[in-house]
Amino acid sequence: MGTREVSLRYCTVAGDEVRTTWEQARADLIVEGLPVRVPPTYRGQRNYPGLFWASTNRRTLVYESLLELERLWLADFDPTVAQIATQPFQITGRDTAGPHRHVPDILLVHRDQQVTLVDVKPQAALSRLQVKAQFDWTRSLCREKGWRYEVFTGGNPTFLRNIRALAVARRHSRLPDGLMEQAWIVLRDAGRLHFGEALTRKPASCDQALWRVALSACIWSGKVTADLDQPLSDRTLIEASVEATA
Fold first, then answer.
1. Residue 214: exposed, middle, or buried by beta-carbon count in 10 A (0-12, 13-18, 19+)?
2. pTM value surpassing 0.85
3. Which residues have a Cβ under 8 Å from the Cβ of 178 and sit 6 or more positions away?
4. pLDDT (tens digit, 9 = 90+) per residue, 64-99?
5. Which one-letter DSSP state was computed for residue 55?
6. Most CB atoms closer than 10 Å: which of 14, 40, 90, 205?
7. With the C-alpha atoms ordered 18, 22, 24, 27, is the resulting torsion angle positive or negative?
8. For residue 244, what is the enclosing H or E element?
């Protein structure tokens, strides 16, 4: 069965169902729509579904598990990602392993128009034959369409804790006018310095807590880089990114 015979179903932002083929499906239309499946909640369930507000495209997304939530945090922090959707579509088809019906977990459209499709699964589940067959099929479809395909089994716990701490700055538009720009100028002119040292360079009229948020916003936005593989502290070295100063 070729990709023309693989059907795809997604929902528009208005809630209308669209059916098309895998070959004709467009990520830029799908990513703007609603999830094709809303995770159920019931007493005694083993996974933890919920809602996640993504600053990347300023929308609330559903997630099916805490592992999926981890991948959403990483996507929202990634400056190359322009749009995020969860449970974005259902694909139906078959290959030599048999019939398949699958709803991938996350669809990412990057700023360079590249597309990444993500399935989330615990490492221990990857050895199951049914899981392997499903992911192999999905990977082959993505390869034919020129999309990247990723199976996410978990991230660096320290990195994830750090970006959750920086997430206080995700809505930097709520900062006082011009404060983030002031923080950026200080960091740009200073070159490389410790986060604690940057805190001491706050304007005299600025509240300490707001200045910390403004500095964090510079890191969250990608204007400033930091070693987030180590616990974030006043000793963390930060510096303006090459792209931001160019």
1. buried
2. yes
3. none
4. 999 999 999 999 999 999 999 999 999 999 888 789
5. T
6. 90
7. positive
8. helix 242-245
